[in-house]
Every structure is written in structure tokens, then in C-alpha cells.
Amino acid sequence: MSNDTEAPATDLPDANGASTPKKKSTTNSATTTAAYDAKAIQVLEGLDPVRKRPGMYIGSTGLQGLHHLIWEVVDNSVDEAMAGHCTRIGVTLLADGGCQVDDNGRGIPIDPFTSGEHKGKSAAEVVLTVLHAGGKFGGDGYKVSGGLHGVGVSVVNALSERLVIEVDRDGKHHRQEYAKGGKPQGKMIIVGDTPKRGRTTGTTITFWPDPTVFAAEGVEFVARTVLERLQTMAFLNRGLEIAFEDQREGREQKIAYQYKGGIVDFVKHLNATKEPLFSKVCQFEDEDLDDGQMLDIAMQWNTGYYEGIHGYANGISTTEGGMHVEGFKTALTSVLNKYARAKNLLKEKDPNLTGEDIREGITAIVSVKLREPQFEGQTKAKLGNVPMRSFVQKATYERLGEWLEENPTEANKVVKKGLSAAQARVAAKNARNAIRRKTALSGAGMPDKLKDCSSKNAEESELFIVEGDSAGGTAVDARDPRTQAILPIRGKILNVERARIDKMLKNNEIQALITAIGAGVGDEFDVTKARYHKVICLADADVDGSHIRTLLLTFFFRQMREMVEAGYCYIAQPPLYSTEIGKEKVYLKDDAAKAAFLEERPNHKKGFQRLKGLGEMDWDELRTTTMLDGTRTLLQVNVEEAALADEITSILMGDDVPARRGFITTNARDVRNLDF
After folding, report:
1. Model's pTM, two decimal places?
2. Domains along the chain with CATH numbers
């Protein structure tokens, strides 16, 4: 809720820098000027900026940011592998909550600086304590790398309560320890000869995250999150062994990833829960030695309806695509239309297949490496190097064209799937037009059951998608009518993972969702037109409620993905139990919260009332526990790794029952919330 109280008018400087008060201001300009002098300017030294604003460096101080610490250290080891100096990386979650990453690379340099402000310090210490220090800014240290800003391992050091670095070089084992906030506890010293543990050189970094920094969600690593990232890295670096070990009590496990097929194995893995259109995987590589550009591309179509093109640049997942993905898509459309016409699969009068038609059901990995990648933003979500677009486009056009000619059976299946997709696209267009005509004829245009909010400001408006008419009525009574809209849905919506868009658009519940959000659907979706910046799934805290949430999230991920990427999708957290302490009513979110409550209060005498459903809660209970800003808990849905989200969506919502059962069984102990 915004505060409607106006702040007092402030003084404005004139052309000479003097303070000129506004006519209505009551602020004393002399006092304001005196207060804002050199003493008000704060200079942050060393790693202090990271401690002050950790979110700027790792994205958040929640679980996502916590795991980002591991990625930063592992990325350094992967860079060694890409440079040809590392064949094995080990990641261990220690029993005491720490994380250890070791590799058999060259070892971080430990020789001292001989001049300048860092004179006498080892190179490793400078890398660990100085932002923007590293071997990736030019020279011969690394031809390509994922870490570009030189802040990675120093940020990990800054946000740890303790860090130990061990380096094996020149037959000696070196060690240095750092205390909270990255404070060195003495210099780098030799503690003996290189131990016989399968390497003669390498680096080991062990760190313990600072719980005061990650207070919101704690410092407990999630094994599945780590494993998924490590597996992706192994796919992208053919032949590299990445070993994982969890030493925590009750969670002990060891897993090693190594893929001789590289991204071909990656494509097969992503399509394992789908039905491939054919068994072959199209794969090709190319390089431009003069410009220092390399590509590795693999693709295979499946019988599904969604495209899965996943771009990587120097091992970094570019979830928003970029020039390499643009070049690939352009060439893909051109070469398949050319092939279809040459083989008379497309007649002279037939229109060309669109890119969307051709990409229906494709799973592709577009991995490129380049010397000076330009990423848009600190999150490295989009590659901006323009020359990479033409390089990928030319290589894809030539090499895919050759593959189609050499594999006519597979090529014909791809074209026929595209033709089928084109027919569905026309049917979907007619369905959209029917929805628009229906909307125009109905007057106001919104679904009858939508109880809209009065605010027209999308930034403050919230849409609660509520399971059932009864619960919808309770939610209407509990809401703030100015900013909160309620849309009841009847039962479980269509599983869009198993339906083409033309069938999906005939579903009444999905029509209501599309109309209420007001930003289109599928390839026409425009996130800037969304009428709400919070779309909240509000379902019962039971198994059926979880299924409904998953169906809704699948719909958003497949048909309104930009809304997920923008952070507009949320999951409400209604309580499953209530009890009383004295005269105060206490609500417990789930069985885990109930168990924790009873452990803290073993002599608690009051009964556990199980809240059977939203419709059975009083409106004031629902408002206080689930809808009121300030007392509610919302989980924001995000897409950190598009390939993983694609895979998980297919597992959970596809036809492969054994794969779904295996996923749930494997990950049950790590689940804290459902998160794409």
C-alpha cells in the first residue's frame, strides 16, 4: 500500500549552485546546505560495497543469492576447463554447512605483486579482496571465460563468515584463511608439499556463507539446485567431469557428471520426458579463428507444441537470448522454407512457414564462445555482440542445409510438423478473433465472474486467481477492493502442456484468464499491457490445491512467459492448520510448521484444527493470513534457468509417469516451495 502523505517541498539549486527555496517550502535552506557537506559523503573501501549492497552482486539475499555464491566459484573452475587446463571439478556440501569447490586447473597464481598499492600481497589475495581484479580482462590468461567483471570470488569472500583458499603449484601446497567479511588472517603460506590426491596443480576454495547476510531464508544449500546447475555445466563442457558430494547428515550422496557427447547428450536429456519426432540429433560446430568465435549447436524436434531454444555464451545461460539465438532462428526459418519448396512440400502458392511454425516442438542448444562477450546487465541474461548473429546465421544456414539433404526422412517430418503447426496457428487466430468479438459484444469486456479492483494503476493492482466459487466469495469479502481483483476458476484448468493453442483457446477458464490479464497470449503476449503486476494463485493448501497451482504455473510459463520473467507471478500461502495460545489464534502453514510448533511446545494442550479449504475460512481469517499486505506470505515465481524450467515442466505435466514419480521421490526432502 502506498503512503498518500506528501513529503514537504525541498530546496532546488540555482545555476550557481546556491540553494533557492520553493515558494511553499518551509525547509531552512541554510540548514539543509550545512548538513550536506563532505562529511555526508561515504567512501566504501575494499569489499565494503558488497556487504552494504549484496543484492547488486548476487541478485538477492535469499536462496537464489545463496546458491549464486557456489556458481561464482565454480565458474572460475569452468573457465580453467574452457582454457584447456582442467579436467575435473569437485563440489562438496560439508556437514557443517560450508561448501568446498576444488579443481585440477593451473591454480590461482600465488606469487606476490612487486609494485603498486598491492605490493607484497599474493595474486590470490588480491583476487579475493579487490573487486574487478582477475585474469579475464585481456592478455593470455583466458581466451574465453564466463566471469567477466572480476568480482566473483571476491564477492563470495565478502559474504562469507569464513573462507579458506588452498593452491597447489610448483609442487607446494599453499593456504590462506579469511574471516568474516573477507578479512585476511595472515599471508598466503606454504603448508607442505602438494598432497597426493589425483592432481599436481589446482585450487580449492572452501567457504561458509554469513548467516547475517542471508537471514531471510537461511544458509542451507539445496542439493537439487546445485546438481541441476552442475549437470548443465557438464553438458556444455564435453568430457569435463564434475563430481558432487553431500556430506550433510541424512542427505549423504555422491553423483558425478561427465558427457562425452556434450550438448548432443543435453538435447537427448531435455527430450527424454517428451516424444522425439525422430531418434537423430542434428549437431554441428564451427569457428572463426580471426574473430575468436566458436559455436556448438544441437537440435532435435519432439511431438510437443512448445519450442525450447536455450542459448549459452561462454557457459553462461542467456535466458533472454541475444544475437546468437537471433542468428540461429533466422537461419532455421530460411533454410527449412528453402528445403520445403525445393522438395515441393510447400506449393508455389502456399505462404512460407513462419518461425513459430518451424520451431514448434524443437529442443535446441545454441552454445557459443567468444573473446569479449557483451552481456546486457549484471545478470548476463542477453548476449549483445552483433557479429555473433551473422556468424551463427551463416553457419546454421550452411550446416543445417547439408543435414536436411543428408537426412530426408527426418527433414520431411520436420516440415510436415511445421505445416500442421501452421494449420493450428490459423485455427488459433480464428479462436482469438472469436474471443475478441465476444469481448466487444459483451460491453465492458471483462469476464462476468471477475470482481475487478477500482485502481487502474497496474503497478499496485493484484489479481487473485481463486480455486472455486465458494472460496472466491470469501476472497471478495476479504480483499481490498481498491487494489485487489478476484477471479474464481472452476476446478482444474486445462493442462496446456498437452494441448495446442487452438484447443487451449476454446477453454472457458483460460479465456477468462487471458481476458482478465489483458495482455494477449502466446506469441502475441505483451507484458507491458498486463493489467496487474501481481497475479497470485490462491488455492487450498492440500494436494488438489498444489495440482491447480502447477496447472496455472504451466499455463503462465508456456503462454505468458514474459510475465513470469518480469516477476509478476506469485503463489499465496494459506495456512493448513490453526490453534490457540492463550486467547491468541495461531496459524500454521503446513505439516512442517505444525511439527516445528509442537517441538517447541511439547506440552501444548489446545487441539489442531485443520483448515479444510479456503471456502471454509472466515473472510477475516483469509484476509489476515493470506491477503493482507504486511501479514501475508507470497512466493514469487521466477525462471533462473530456462532449460531446467522447460525440463521440469515437461516432467511434471507431460505423459511420462515414471519420470514424474522419480522426480518427486528424488526431490521430496529438498522441497521448500514450488519454484520454476
Report:
1. 0.70
2. 1-41 (no CATH), 49-257 (3.30.565.10), 274-425 (3.30.230.10), 448-574+634-670 (3.40.50.670)
| Of the candidates 468, 327, 338, the residue with the CA atom closest to the CA atom of residue 392 | 327
SS3 sequence of 503-568: HHCCCHHHHHHHHHHCCCCHHHCCHHHCCCCEEEEECCCCHHHHHHHHHHHHHHHHHCHHHHHCCC
Under a CB-based contact definition with an 8 Å cutoff, are residues 363 and 308 in contact? Answer: yes
pLDDT at residue 64, rounded to an integer? 87
Q: Which residue has the cell 519450442?
A: 307
Residue 601's pLDDT band (cuts 50, 70, 90): confident
pLDDT in tens, 228-269: 999 999 999 999 999 999 999 999 999 999 999 999 999 999
Sign of the C-alpha dihedral computed for residues 601, 605, 608 and 609 taken in this order: negative
Would you state the cell numbers that stand for residue 618, as one nine-digit string?
A: 472466515
What radius of gyration do the chain's Cα atoms show?
28
Q: Round to the nearest angstrom and report the end-to-end CA distance of the chain.
A: 27
As a whole number of angstroms, the distance between CA 254 and CA 262 comes to 21
Supply the pLDDT for residue 662: 55
Closest CA to 327 of 241, 385, 269: 385
User: Which residue type sits at 559?
Assistant: Q
The residues annotated with a catalytic role in the active site are 467, 540, 542, 544
Q: Where are the alpha helices (DSSP H) in 21-62?
A: 29-35, 48-52, 55-58
Q: What is the pLDDT, as a whole number, of residue 3?
A: 37
Q: What pLDDT is stored for residue 296 in this prediction?
A: 96
Sign of CA dihedral 80, 86, 92, 98: negative
CA distance 427 to 431: 6
Identity of the highest mean pLDDT range in 55-59, 380-384, 530-534, 633-637: 530-534
Answer for the pair 194, 171: CB distance below 8 angstroms, yes or no: yes
Coil, helix or strand at residue 477:
helix
Higher pLDDT, 574 or 660: 574
Three-class DSSP category at 190: strand
- How confident is the model over 314-325, as pLDDT tens digits? 888 888 899 999
484 in helix, strand or coil?
A: strand
- Nine cell digits for residue 564: 513470469
C-alpha grid cell for residue 657? 509417469
Using CA atoms, how far residue 70 sits from 126, 156, 374, in Å, is 20, 8, 23
Spell out the residues 6+ positions from residue 300 whose beta carbon is closer than 8 angstroms to its own.
267, 268, 271, 276, 277, 278, 280, 281, 282, 362, 363, 364
Hey, which residues does 103 pair with through a beta bridge?
89, 203
d(CA 365, CA 548): 31
Match 531552512 to its residue by C-alpha cell: 28
Order of strands across the sheet that contains 577-581: 584-588, 577-581, 609-610
Query: How much is the average pLDDT of 337-341?
Result: 96
Opening angle at CA 667, ends 662 and 673, nearest 5: 130
Cβ pair 653, 497 in contact under 8 A: yes
Q: Which residue from 165, 183, 149 is spatially nearest to 45, judged by alpha carbons? A: 183
Q: Kindly state the cell numbers that stand for 278.
A: 525422430
> Among 159-168, 221-230, 407-416, 572-581, whose mean pLDDT is lowest?
572-581
| Gap between the Cα atoms of 514 and 553, Å rounded | 14
- Do residues 113 and 126 touch, judged by C-beta distance below 8 A? yes
The CA distance from 227 to 253, in Å, is: 11
Helix (H, G, I), strand (E, B) or coil at 571: strand
CA 474 to chain centre: 34
Q: Which residues pair with 293 in a beta bridge?
A: 288, 370
Element (DSSP H or E) covering residue 91: strand 88-93
Pairing of strands 362-370, 308-313: parallel
